[in-house]
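Final report, closing paragraph on structural work. Over the funding period we assembled a curated collection of sequence-structure pairs, and we close with a single example.
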Amino acid sequence: MRQLLKDFFKGLWKENPTFVLTLGMCPTLAVTSNALNGASMGIATTFVLACSNIVISLIRNIVPNKIRIPVYIVVIAAFVTIIEMLMKAYAPAALCASLGIFIPLIVVNCIVLGRAEAFASKNGPVRSLFDGLGMGLGFTLSLTVIGSLREFLSTGSLFDIKLITAWTTDFLLPSSAPGAFIILGSLMALMNYINSRKARKNGKVYVPPSGLDCRHCNICSLTNDQDK
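Its predicted structure, as stored:
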């Protein structure tokens, strides 16, 4: 149980996919114009992460090594199709329009494929489920925080609820692409500062985890090798 909790909680802070591993930057910057969009995108990704991790963990010993990446993509695509159909059936039309192409693009989200290659393909289904839920929840919290800050700084609202009624003129910078980069960079700097300060108090030097981020990822090279 302790190992399962460790697998779950590492995605919330220590190996947060957005602020630490810097994965999934496209949806992070594109859909977080408000809190609702960020939370919805995170929940959809969490569903795909958890379900695909379980299935990939179950089939990991029967999938030939040379075709594992295409197989993983097919599994992920199946769950992305399910969540897309559910959202079209039950989610508000305005929300579906706001998220747009980024829901289908979960198929190629490096967080999902990265956890499949780095964790689910090497561990059992229970641990893979907790890893997927933890990483997904960490991604959801990150997108919700960024979306909340952008929405509040832009319109004085939160989840489409006007908190400052006297705020009548929107501030355009937070809702724009440069504002998204500024807010994301500020939050990443804050997290690094907190981790560094905590490490110094313990007499250590903070070293970011060398998980499956773009500096250590080999999925692209694997895919190119298979194409040849």
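Strands lie at 157-158, 161-162. Residues 2-227 form one domain. We thank the funder for supporting this effort.
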